Amino acid sequence: VCHDLFYMEDRQYFSPKKRVLWRGIRFLTRHRYRFAHAVIAVSQSTATQLHKFIPGIDPHKIHVVHNGVDLGNPDDIASAPLPSDLEAERYILYVGNNRSHKNLEILISAFSKARDRIDGLKLVMAGRIEEKYEDPRAYFHKYGLADTEAVHLGAVSNELLKTLYDNSAFVVIPSLYEGFGLPAIEAGRSG
Question: Which of 9, 49, 98, 179 could form a cystine bridge with 5, CB 3.0-4.6 A?
């Protein structure tokens, strides 16, 4: 299963010390997919990347099988109470990790510039913070956002995630690249 190949295109995601590792990963990735009996790509975009980055791969062995979410009745999914410092319909939601291609500094910078025009909306971020990437909370301070204007909740339960989607004013997906973009599907399910 291939979710994405963003790391194949741009070595900027690797520190100078790890660029040797990057070359090795590229070699192993090409070898793994070229000689696999079949490859499942989670999107047409990922299938296109496989053709681009894996010279000689047989296009007949690439099968696009989209990711998905449980599309059962959203009313049947348990939800958690909204955190006390959040008000329904009064926040913008970002769901995802803090990897550099997620473009969080641009999101936070844009939010800081627009906050006077967005009538008191808060920026709420949810998702695992990976230590090897910049902590988005550092950007809150860099762009002068107070705790009352922006918050990062870290990893949250599925119940709280449902509540956050259901009560947000809207969801933002500022990524420069996504292999599939699961938060868009999850947000759509919540309406």
Answer: 49
Cβ atoms within 10 Å, residue 11: 16
Nearest to 7 by CA among 97, 95, 129, 101: 101
Distance CA 112, CA 134 (A): 18
Name the residue with tokens 């998702």: 127
Q: Which of 26, 2, 1, 11 is nearest to 101 (CA)?
A: 11
Length of the chain: 191
pTM above 0.85, yes or no: no
75-89 pLDDT per residue, tens: 666 678 888 888 888
Tens of pLDDT, residues 3-26: 888 777 766 666 677 777 777 888
List the structure tokens of 128. 């695992």
